[in-house]
Design a protein that fits this description.
This protein is mainly α. It has helices at residues 2-12, 14-43, 51-61, 64-69, 72-93, 99-130.
């Protein structure tokens, strides 16, 4: 795997790979955030409460400074947090009427995990060559 990644870096360049990984992170993060917002609204009962919304969205919102600041370590931690959403999506997918929603959540969180890990690797390499 390491050799494959090094060949990929030589072929395409670290700057391009960092840019593509960032685009991947932004897209998957945005879609997962929208999905969690919708899920928070669906959990609501007759009286509106922020608690269900915060439970679904807050873990993602906490990583916005790392995403905006393009910090590799923050992206690595976000990748690990995205695995919680993956396991939640797999559990929801086992419910008879929620299969599509659960699979979508699992796929989006897996995409976020992959993008974050790629960005953390390529951005740290990019910073190492710049400094």
């Amino acid at each position: 795997m390491k050799q494959w990644l090094e060949r990929l870096e030589q072929r395409h360049g670290v700057d391009l790979l960092t840019l593509r990984a960032r685009q991947w992170v932004l897209a998957s993060f945005g879609l997962l955030l929208i999905m969690m917002l919708l899920r928070g609204f669906m959990v609501q009962d007759a009286a509106f409460s922020w608690r269900p919304m915060a439970a679904f969205v807050l873990p993602l919102i906490l990583f916005l400074p790392s995403i905006i600041g393009r910090r590799p370590r923050g992206h690595a931690w976000l990748a690990f947090v995205s695995l919680l959403y993956f396991s939640q999506g797999v559990m929801v997918a086992t419910l008879p009427t929620q299969t599509l929603r659960g699979v979508t959540e699992a796929v989006l969180s897996l995409a976020l995990f992959t993008g974050c890990m790629a960005f953390a690797r390529f951005r740290s390499r990019q910073l190492r060559t710049q400094g």
